[in-house]
Amino acid sequence: MVSVQELYELWATDAYAELKDALGESLAPRGHGWLLELFAELQPQPGQLVLDIGARDAVGAIELVSRHDLRAIALDPVRLHCERARQAVGDAGLADSIEVVEGAIENLPLGDASVDWIWCRDVLVHVDARQGLAECARVLRPGGAMVAYVTLATERLEPQERAELARLGAIVPDSFTSAGIENAAGEAGLDLRRVERLGSEWRERLIEDGDIDTAAGLLAVARLDRRRSELVGRFGAEAVDVARNGFLWGAYQMLGKLSPTVFVWERRA
To answer: Comparing C-alpha atoms, which of 177, 179, 182, 176 is closest to residue 194?
Structure first.
């Protein structure tokens, strides 16, 4: 344990001041565009079919089709997302290349070995990963690959924090750890080609680029806690708790409690 004497002597040193200055230096963190670069390294070929699972407004499918001259299926279980995706696809002039389908990863409405690639972002923690990844393996052609981005709990996340994130974030506890995801993939017949544990990188890049303000998120949490009774009366406890959970999600990434992770799996031949 550091004594009071040691603590204040440490704070007073030039070396400690230099340490704080060093933390102002960027580590050149990777940003969202890196995930597209990773996909490009897999060398997709024109005309191949990519399945975008959890497509939301189809921004991923549109980007992949535009960059690589692919065909795509943009799949999402939320009807409103599908409506927005169809609008976005039409606006991009890609209606002939991208089909929007309402459906879920646990029961993919596709034939066996029918797709060349799978692109999956922010989905696996919300579902039974074993069932979902088994379906992904089923629809992938032998040798086909899946790129999955998922934010997972680390050992720094306290049990109560984990439980609250799961309860308010529609998270399946067994799908919230790296071991759970990797075991599910192996059982499904997906071989791990690459894993990148991004940790805080994307958040750092967003902050450095001025796209998000983590301090503003923490300020919102503080204000929410101080005004909880009033806000619950106006908006309901569930809305208030979900909002707080969302602000903490980014902060927990910066603190190492959550780690955005990218897996690249290949279906066994």
So the answer is: 182
How many helices and strands, by DSSP H and E, does the chain display? 12, 7
Instruction: Answer yes or no: are the C-beta atoms of 261 and 175 closer than 8 Å.
Output: no
Residue 158, classed as helix, strand or coil, is: coil
Give the span between the Cα atoms of 23 and 12, in whole angstroms: 17
CA dist 260 → 167, 197, 230, 265 (Å): 19, 6, 34, 16
Domains and their CATH numbers in the chain: 29-200+256-267 (3.40.50.150)
**Nearest-angstrom CA–CA distance, 38 and 72:** 18
Q: Read out DSSP for 77-134?
A: S-HHHHHHHHHHHHHTT-TTTEEEEE--GGG-SS-TT-EEEEEEES-GGGS-HHHHHH
CA distance 87 to 80: 11
Q: What is the pLDDT of residue 268?
A: 84
Q: Which amino acid, 144? A: G
The reply to whether the predicted model has a pTM over 0.85 is yes
Written as six digits, the tokens of 9 are 């002597």
Return d(Cα 54, Cα 154) in angstroms, integer: 24
CA dist 198 and 188 (Å) reads 24
How far apart CA 166 and CA 177 sit, in angstroms, is: 12
| 221: CB partners within 8 A, 6+ apart | 244, 247, 248, 251
pLDDT in tens, 45-64: 999 999 999 999 999 999 99
